[in-house]
Amino acid sequence: ARRLSKVLQLTLAVIKPDAVAHPVILEALHQRILDNNFVIVRSKDVVWRRQDSESFYAEHSGRFFYQRLVEFMSSGPMRAYVLAREDAIHHWRALMGPTKVFRARHTSPATIRAQFGLTDTRNTTHGSDSVESAQREIRFFYPDFCAEEWMEKEEPSFR
Ligand code: RTP
Ligand code: MG
After folding, report:
1. Which residues form the Nucleoside diphosphate kinase-like domain (predicted)?
2. What is the pLDDT of residues 42-67, one digit of tens each?
3. Is residue 113 annotated as involved in ligand binding?
4. What is the whole-number distance in angstroms between the Cα of residue 95 and the centre of ligand 2?
């Protein structure tokens, strides 16, 4: 018999300081995670020091938006989730929508950034963009997290 199974994937999702600052938006985003069949594996509120922010976004160092990005991401509390579902990385990024808020509002008005984003920097959420970044970013926020335990798990299936 053919075996139907869906492998769970992990992603790191962050609700950025602009959205955490507004309790109604924070709650709406939390609800959207639940409504989209993600399992919340870990969740915590964190405040970054400037050096955490610089290190997390090191790949963007030198870009014109780097300084304001680093400053913004260490400006107040964030919520960091490890989320699991099938195709989690893609699904979370699809929910977020395009990075640039103007573009998001015009091309994908139902996305998180279209609805809640303030500017291209203060754009409500982050999501890992690949399996490699998910691993790095999960380790960044949760140094003791054992990804292997989760990566191999499959949803229950009938044969
Ligand atoms: P993210 O990494 O946050 O999930 O978003 P992304 O892949 O869609 O965007 P990326 O190009 O990786 O940029 C990282 C974050 O930098 C800020 N940014 N500001 N023009 C700007 O002012 C600008 N461009 C990017 C955003 O906060 C973006 O999420
Ligand atoms: Mg990115």
Report:
1. 8-149
2. 999 999 999 999 999 999 999 999 99
3. yes
4. 14
